[in-house]
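If you are new to this repository, start here. Below is one unmodified record pulled from the training split, so you can see the exact layout before writing a loader.
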Amino acid sequence: MNQFLQFTPILKDKIWGGQKLKKKLNKDSRSSNVGESWEVSAVKGDVSVVSRGELIGKTLQELLKEYQSELVGKRVYNVFGDEFPLLIKFIDAKEALSIQLHPHDELAKKRHNSFGKTEMWYVMQADEGANLIVGFKEDVTLEEYLHHLQNKSLTEILNIDVVQKGDVYFIPTGRVHAIGAGVLLAEIQQTSDITYRIYDWDRKDSEGNSRDLHTQEALEAIDYKSQKNYKTAYTKIENRSSTIVKSPYFHTAVLPVKGAIDKNITDLDSFVIYLCLEGKATFKTKDDSLELHMGETLLVPASLTHYQIEANQAELLEVTIP
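And here is the target side for that same chain:
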């Protein structure tokens, strides 16, 4: 494979969605409540399709079956086979998302024949006072949790952080969480669409129906322990990939670009996904060139081992499989 891969965004209308994906990230939609843009996806029924170059019209699943380790790397292919391991999204919460959590691999496999869903958030923009719910303030018992759930007072025991641009949160399976109103963020996660919704603010859809809750399913999956601090600390260094999150499922770095960078991923044995958080950057090889703008994503196949990134000023997220 000798070209950078870009895919047509899969846009999802949500009861809590808004206009930022269109107005700030230039996503093409006429809807008034676009909540998610799935940038790279192999989730059944929502598989990404190549939008440029010689492979235009091919699905990510077709590419994986045809190119195998050329696309994802020998090491990654040996572990995941024909299942692409990551799902990449941009999310706009005009209203708060439900309070929810995701099951771990073992439970997800047993109940849903799916991967679990470890994820991370990078806040791209936040309205004044906007917040995220991440974890519990203090350790809670199952009985305490159920008491607050039944009394609709969950927020009394949950950790709520006011956030700003650049804040990062790692969300392992089992951790209760919710994106608050006014937050635009990038999300990197395992390939899974399994969510246990535990509270949805008593809201109704346009037809007056409440969304399903997963009260019983969640009980076994919740991590009732607390952390002192949930926000991820990291540093940025110009023209260097600085680690933000390193989990067994993905390694994410922040890469501020000014000028030109030569990248050599020969020893990585993994694909690389770039999300443009700010500005624009040009990716070049002897055979291909692509300009990546804010709110866009590209996938560098594992076989494309040498490339250059140029920008007057840009900020990228760089995602690989560790």
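Two things worth knowing about this chain: The chain has a mean pLDDT of 95. DSSP finds seven helices and 19 strands in the chain.
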